Amino acid sequence: MATIRVRFAPSPTGHLHVGGARTALFNWLFARQNNGVLVLRIEDTDLARSTKESEEVMLNDLKWLGLHWDEGPDKGGDFGPYRQSERLSIYREYADKLLAEGKAYHCFCTDEELEAHREQRRAEHQTPHYSGKCRQLSDAEKEKLKRAGRTPAIRFKASAEDINIKDLVRGNVTFPQGMIGDFIIMRSQGYPIYNFCVTIDDALMKISHVIRGEEHLSNTLRQIMLYKALGFPLPTFAHLSLILAGDRSKLSKRHGHSSLGQFEDKGYLPEAMINYLALLGWAPTTLSGDVEEMLSVEEITRQFSLEKVNKSPAVFDLDKLNFLSGHYIRRLPPEKTLELARPYLEQAGLVDENTDQAWLTEVVMELRGHLHCFSEITQHTDVFFKNELKPESDAEWEMLKAPGVTDLLSGLKGKLSGLTAISPEEFFALIKELKKEFGVKGKALFMPVRIALSGQQHGPDLGKLVSLVGPANCVKRIESALQNL
Ligand code: GLU
Predict the structure, then answer these.
(1) Pick the CATH number of 382-484 from 3.20.20.150, 1.20.1090.10, 2.60.120.200, 1.10.10.350
(2) Which of 15, 70, 163, 199 could make a disulfide contact with 175, Cβ separation 3.0–4.6 Å?
(3) pLDDT at residue number 448
(4) Which CATH topology does 87-240 take?
(5) Nearest CA to ligand 1 atom 7
(6) Residue 329 — φ and ψ, nearest 5°?
(7) Interior CA angle at 432 toward 428 and 438, to 5°?
(8) Is the CB of residue 216 below 6 angstroms from any atom belonging to ligand 1?
(9) Are the C-beta atoms of residues 257 and 12 closer than 8 Å to each other?
């Protein structure tokens, strides 16, 4: 059987979008599953918008996700170069071939003329296809136009037939004849157009399966016409559905979480991201028919199938990603948790190179339960790093203001004063003493103590908190609470 060859072909004109990342992932999964090859091709023929920085960012984003390619601009391979801007002579050669075979022609129309024609067609309620005017030019007419200073573009003769494909996601897709008119493949400046480059590259790079976003369906029609005209065998197509935001509009920048780099910066885990991206349009099922959610990349690779990808739009649900991501964070070992949390704590000025590693590991492990991504950690650090903790709710203030609380807290302060360290067990022994001395128990005893020491009714285990924060800081916290009463 021929080798399965797929490609991810980003245009380096910005960040890697969530949709692009999903396309890359599905290509990668398909290649891995079939012992195939993933080609990375950079589509940088849009000179005005393509940048080297963007290419670098996109490649780094893919690497962060853990997606690797077998051939590409940085890897080489037998079918390079892998940057379209380095393949211009190849496109010119094929454009000449189409011209020579009468399958394309020089078009001298100016932008203004084309626009006027389109306007007229629209006014007549006709599809604004190109008129075919330059199809018929005689050699003498062409010469005359050239002498008048016009440089021609190269326009492809659209084929007049229905085109059917069997898309692996969408099933049978029919493009009825007449959907498009003759289209440009080389601009008058000699620069090739996207559809032309993609067809030639996919064919020469021996791509067997083109897996890409649904927004490319209308390009697919043009590309199939070109495949046929150039005598290339057709690949199999799979068009992935759109990704929508919660408001059902297409996920975009304005939703604030559309680029992959944003998730990386916020400290999401790549394995959570892979898991979530895989579920955008695809759902694995267990034998019992339950939908599985948390899946390792190996499991995803084992179960993934393009036939099971849903053709209706996928909705990007940040809550679901957060839910999954939180689970991944809670499964990390302590050293890794610290490694990933530390940069955010340093950035917030809470820790530095002198901070005790073992202590900080314990703190981070206490806090990780709150997290969906590591940048969130600084929202929860007060309880370990601040001694002036003001309760937020009225209910908490009321518990502090209850009769006898001042004496109780002063009693606790007395017991903690002068201690240099305290274990959870020693702390609970002190609490037992307080219980006896003050004749209070249960909530009436624990709540004021907890609120004074942590500023909240819920939160870390009290014994653990006290031992990590240390008696001296606990004393300061009690003093601050008493002052506020
Ligand atoms: N360069 C195109 C894009 O970034 C992808 C083209 C394709 O996959 O055929 O949208």
Answers:
(1) 1.10.10.350
(2) 163
(3) 94
(4) Glutamyl-tRNA Synthetase; domain 3 (3.90.800)
(5) 9
(6) -60, -40
(7) 135
(8) yes
(9) no
